């Protein structure tokens, strides 16, 4: 089989950076067009927060791990190239709001074809619609130099943010899809051998190209569907007096079901779930399968419902108006242990409160103030001036909660489990409300202090 001696990864983001940083023994160069991002990867302040990432990067950087903006050099030198660029939902044109925007992937593919002077294995690491490898092959073959041969593999990434390093060191599985030709299988063996440096062979699964591409969309859709299912049940719990944690525990004890990923919440966020389901919806529609499209679309609709239901519950509970009231939002990241805010439910919830003319104070231990402003202004699309007087971004929980009529927990940061609630209570007007959108607080303790506590999926009335 082909021996991989040098790897290039195009795209130094949440996936490219961590996935390549854990590869031992082989020289890896991660390239990106974004100079600021590359500079950050080469500095002491990495561009993303991920537990364990600093140690891994600092021990490999300059030895077998390099970060550069010289995309062409990276491509030219490598035998294997991971394409790990962003594939966001299209904002305009055909499929707007659903289809994946493949422009970054296609630009990177064209660059490979233009620059390569020797044969390469090109690995689709980005999440893409089923059969994207076929268009990549067409682009590569139409633009390649004589004597250059390209094998295309699909190798979707299953890491979750916040646990990326642990997930990458000990993955449940590594999935590699290839054409079932002699050359395709040979390329597949070459990539399997790279992973075999640290992943047990029985966890490296090899399948056909299209199954591999579809498996990634399927896995994310089914994970998100579990959350929408449990969130749908949380609404029934609130109306009946049942408790969603008890229901989820009872359901999860069934070994066919398993206990993970059954936590009711304010709704799922993150850059993947919504985007990948919408991608699947678009794919289903393009394949003339409207019933299938409708089925998956409901998972996203339920998530939108959960976010607005939670925000509306805050308004209802505060006697139907929050105009002029201070509301504290604890947590801006879409989950704990990340600074990533893409599709974070906190953004929708804050916007809901702003539309009700509340004064919103925000605290998050990892998200920067400038990022919160980018999120609130939709990256500059909404003017900041009109909302500025209604927003404060705080450096501590105490400051954010001081004088707040409601404290709304949106992210399950560990530090929110051990707050000094007595002190917080002393600085709140009465009645003081806590809304737990993550089921992390000790309800009895807070009620004993004097708070009125409202939790997702709990029938107890205030
Ligand atoms: P990201 O936006 O953090 O990073 C992508 C990087 O690619 C950016 O830094 C961008 O500058 C760079 N880039 C874009 N076009 C380029 C080009 N032509 N040449 C060089 N660099 C280019 O995105 P991400 O979160 O790392 O996601 C990447 C892919 O992985 C997406 O398809 C995503 O769906 C998938 N994925 C993400 C996660 C996750 O947890 N974030 C998990 C699994 C899969
Ligand atoms: C997800 C997939 O888990 C991962 O395999 C894929 O590679 C990328 O997309 P990520 O979005 O980083 O990973 O985090 P994940 O842990 O899946 O959480 C997604 C969202 O669902 C978060 O907002 C989280 O808070 C929420 N969630 C998760 C729940 O509301 N309840 C749960 O039980 C689990």
UniProtKB/TrEMBL annotation:
Gene3D superfamilies: Cytochrome c1, transmembrane anchor, C-terminal, NAD(P)-binding Rossmann-like Domain. Residues 328-443 form the UDP-glucose/GDP-mannose dehydrogenase C-terminal domain. Pathway: Nucleotide-sugar biosynthesis; UDP-alpha-D-glucuronate biosynthesis; UDP-alpha-D-glucuronate from UDP-alpha-D-glucose: step 1/1. One of its GO terms (biological process) is glycosaminoglycan biosynthetic process. SUPFAM superfamilies: 6-phosphogluconate dehydrogenase C-terminal domain-like (SSF48179), NAD(P)-binding Rossmann-fold domains (SSF51735), UDP-glucose/GDP-mannose dehydrogenase C-terminal domain (SSF52413). It catalyses: UDP-alpha-D-glucose + 2 NAD(+) + H2O = UDP-alpha-D-glucuronate + 2 NADH + 3 H(+). Substrate binds at residues 157-161, 216-220, 256, 263-269, 334-335, 438. Its EC number is 1.1.1.22. One of its GO terms (molecular function) is NAD binding. The active site is at residue 272. NAD(+) binds at residues 11-16, 32, 37, 85-89, 126-127, 161, 272-275, 342. InterPro entries: 6-PGluconate_DH-like_C_sf, NAD(P)-bd_dom_sf, UDP-Glc/GDP-Man, UDP-Glc/GDP-Man_DH_C, UDP-Glc/GDP-Man_DH_C_sf, UDP-Glc/GDP-Man_DH_dimer, UDP-Glc/GDP-Man_DH_N, UDPglc_DH_euk. One of its GO terms (cellular component) is nucleus. Keywords: NAD, Oxidoreductase. It comes from the Eukaryota. It is an enzyme of class 1 (oxidoreductase). Belongs to the UDP-glucose/GDP-mannose dehydrogenase family. PANTHER family: UDP-GLUCOSE 6-DEHYDROGENASE, UDP-GLUCOSE DEHYDROGENASE/UDP-MANNAC DEHYDROGENASE. NCBIfam families: NDP-sugDHase. This is UDP-glucose 6-dehydrogenase. It comes from Kwoniella newhampshirensis.
């Amino acid at each position: 089989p082909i021996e991989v001696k040098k790897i290039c990864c195009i795209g130094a983001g949440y996936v490219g950076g961590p996935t390549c940083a854990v590869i031992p023994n082989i020289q890896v160069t991660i390239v990106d067009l974004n100079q600021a991002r590359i500079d950050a990867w080469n500095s002491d302040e990495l561009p993303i927060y991920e537990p364990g990432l600093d140690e891994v990067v600092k021990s490999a950087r300059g030895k077998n791990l390099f970060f550069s903006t010289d995309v062409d050099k990276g491509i030219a030198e490598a035998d294997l190239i991971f394409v790990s660029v962003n594939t966001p939902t299209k904002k305009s044109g055909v499929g707007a709001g659903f289809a994946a925007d493949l422009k970054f992937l296609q630009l990177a593919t064209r660059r490979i074809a233009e620059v390569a002077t020797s044969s390469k294995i090109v690995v689709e690491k980005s999440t893409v619609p089923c059969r994207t490898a076929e268009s990549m092959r067409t682009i590569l073959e139409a633009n390649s130099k004589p004597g250059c041969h390209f094998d295309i593999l699909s190798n979707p990434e299953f890491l979750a943010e916040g646990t990326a390093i642990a997930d990458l060191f000990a993955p449940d599985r590594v999935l590699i899809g290839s054409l079932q030709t002699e050359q395709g299988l040979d390329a597949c063996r070459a990539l399997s051998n790279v992973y075999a440096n640290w992943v047990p062979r029985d966890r490296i699964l090899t399948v056909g190209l299209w199954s591999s591409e579809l498996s990634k969309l399927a896995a994310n859709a089914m994970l998100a569907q579990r959350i929408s299912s449990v969130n749908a049940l949380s609404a029934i719990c609130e109306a009946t007096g049942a408790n969603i944690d008890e229901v989820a525990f009872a359901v999860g004890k069934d070994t066919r079901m398993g206990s993970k990923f059954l936590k009711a919440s304010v709704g799922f966020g993150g850059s993947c779930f919504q985007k990948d389901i919408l991608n699947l919806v678009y794919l289903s529609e393009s394949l003339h399968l409207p019933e299938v499209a409708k089925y998956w679309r409901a998972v996203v609709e339920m998530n939108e419902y959960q976010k607005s239901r939670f925000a509306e519950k805050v308004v209802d509970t505060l006697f139907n108006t929050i105009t002029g009231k201070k509301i504290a939002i604890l947590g801006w990241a879409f989950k704990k242990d990340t600074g990533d805010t893409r599709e974070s439910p906190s953004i929708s919830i804050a916007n809901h409160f702003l539309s009700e003319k509340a004064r919103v104070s925000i605290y998050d231990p990892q998200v920067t103030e400038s990022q919160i402003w980018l999120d609130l202004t939709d990256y500059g699309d909404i003017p900041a001036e009109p909302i500025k007087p209604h927003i404060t971004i705080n450096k501590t929980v105490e400051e954010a909660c001081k004088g707040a009529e409601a404290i709304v927990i949106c992210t399950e940061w560990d530090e929110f489990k051990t707050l000094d609630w007595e002190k917080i209570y002393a600085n709140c007007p009465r009645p003081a409300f806590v809304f737990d959108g993550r089921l992390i607080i000790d309800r009895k303790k807070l009620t004993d202090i004097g708070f009125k506590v409202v939790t997702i999926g709990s029938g107890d009335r205030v």
